[in-house]
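With this grant's support, we have settled on a layout for protein records. An illustrative entry appears below exactly as we store it:
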Amino acid sequence: MKALLEFLDAGPVVLEVLAALGPLVVFFVLFQAIFLRLPARILGRMAGGMAQAFVGLVFFLQGVKVGFLPVGRDMGIALGSFGRPWVLVPIGFLLGFAATAAEPAVRILGEEVERASAGSIRSRVIIPTLSVGVAVFVALGMFRILTGIPLVWFLVPGYAAALAMLPFSGQTFVSIAFDSGGVATGPMTVTFVMALAVGAAGALENRHPVLDGFGLIALVALAPILSVLVLGLVYSGKKGKKS
């Protein structure tokens, strides 16, 4: 009953969603009045879609607030207090894969890539590529929390590898790769995985929830860039064999 009351108490979330969608609505109304002048039938469909998006965002963000964040934090604390904290690494891999595969923005990216490339780059290829890449780096992030290795030791070689692959992956995959870094760090991944990392770092001895728990999202943002660039190398190799 308490959880239900917390879920229904969504007033602050409603205001946040209004603040986020309000400028977009105002911007569209101005364009509609000055430039677009779309017919009423299309405006009605857009208004219905906007209303659904508003309600969906309110429910989603409120669910994150009362569900994902507490569960992720409690799981991190339980795993960090467990007698075998190394289990954070494989569990981090599994959760990273699941969260990315379920990320709505990742699925939208996959569909847009397939549509824009006329089907030459399939959504069913992009989504698993991003999911595996994020899963590997979430596991690395959990390993970093266990060992206390500085974050810079992962980020500098990672971005250096990305820069080294740029000339060989093809312009198409370079563009997709750097967009993927922002897409993968969506609400599903950030809320659940970050809460898990902070909870685990707080429960482990000689670890600090701020110094060691945060930084994982930086690795998550790097993971899709590297994985898509590697995919670009694979595609370039296949084209080279065909020619």
Remarks:
- The two ends are 65 Å apart (CA to CA).
- The chain has two domains: 1-67, 82-238.
